[in-house]
Amino acid sequence: MKIEKILNNNVVTIIDEDGIEQVIMGKGIAFKKVFGDKIEEKKIEKIFKLDSKNASERFKSLLNETPMEYVEISRNIIKYAEKTLEKKFEDVIFLALTDHLNFAMKRMKKGLPIKNEMLWEIKRIYRKEYSIGIWSINYIKYKLGVDLPEDEAGFIALHIINATLGESMPNTMNITKLIQDILSIVKYHYKIDVDEEALSFHRFVTHLKFFAQRMFSKKQELSGDDSLYEVVKDKYNESYLCVKKIRDYIKITYDYELTSEEMVYLVLHVQRLTKDKSVASNT
């Protein structure tokens, strides 16, 4: 590999065999190097393959204006998240998270922290990602001596959620709001508090994540066997009435019509959730 451009002592670009520019990172990788020099492979710590030219240009611009300690912190947060969630993320998360951290640090220095309006929902629905956010702000405090507010843990969690779902930030926020609204409908229909540690709760939330993702991407599943719909409707009538409220809310708010198959799955999940021994009645 030969150097195409030197961005700083730790970052260079190359042109791969397909003619696509890649960003190579490693401590001192460009020290005393010039255009056309070979890269010492033992110094390579990370290769970023960004598909679009626009993303590549944004990434190079970001690396030029961002302190390398922020870049390193972002890399380590992503490594920790991948290990915790046992999932490999696309390189685009590095661009988004590094940009966010750079902006967050500038805001903090100016005394202008931003309120995270979805913090409560994130803590409740995305517990693992939120725990990564908390780890991250503690790590930043250890490395930089900057005490970021809990809101920033929520913002970092959102970036992790985006990477996990493969969604944009607006879609992730829409998905989170929809899940929270559906949980609220169940809560108020049954007048209960649900034990959020219960397995049935986590299964329900997981189902809602994938349902919401399909809904916002307009990938509606074909309706299944209507005979099963009628059986579930009769057998679990109270859960069905609750899901009817969910269906009506989604139709009015998002102009999306639930299929009979989607209704069946929601009824079954609501039934499990509300019949769980860990559900505590408010009445």
Automatic annotation (TrEMBL):
Annotated PANTHER family: CRYPTIC BETA-GLUCOSIDE BGL OPERON ANTITERMINATOR
InterPro entries linked: BglG_antiterminators, CAT_RNA-bd_dom, CAT_RNA-bd_dom_sf, PRD, PRD_sf
PROSITE patterns: PRD_2
SUPFAM superfamilies: PTS-regulatory domain, PRD (SSF63520), SacY-like RNA-binding domain (SSF50151)
Organism: Clostridium folliculivorans
Name of the protein: Transcription antiterminator LicT
This protein's record includes keyword Nucleotide-binding: no
MF (Gene Ontology): RNA binding
Keywords: Repeat
Positions of the PRD domain: 65-170, 171-280
Matching Pfam families: CAT_RBD (PF03123), PRD (PF00874)
GO annotation terms (biological process): regulation of DNA-templated transcription
